[in-house]
User: Fold this.
Amino acid sequence: MMRTFWLAFAVALLVVSAHAGAPGKLPTDEAIRTEMKAIRDLTLNVHTLVTHRRMPPADARTFHTRVKAAVERLKAGTQVQAETRGEIEKLASYIERGAAAVAGADSSMSPIDGILIIDDSLAIYAQRFDHPDWQPLR
Assistant:
């Protein structure tokens, strides 16, 4: 199951990368920028705890709940065009799945797998979407 997920994730990355050669970045709106920044900040706060396997389970569940809420607000609040909306919603779904793994809610992945998915998704966001003043995780 884990292998299937990684294969699907790799295919999605290839699709996103194939579009990366297109001129310009996809537009964002305030809802996307606000919630992606919130997700990045939440991830910054837990990254070291997850990678060093020191994150308390209750904190991991709180992280997942907050990321899931940010993804839901992003999906509900964005007013971008259909193509952009589809791309950001796919990326946000990967982020949410990563947060579920961090919390132990997805038994097919480890918490470290989950944080790596979020890392990769945030890097793709920076490459594909126009977000002035975006700060990477590192």
Summary: Residues 11 and 95 are 16 Å apart (CA to CA).
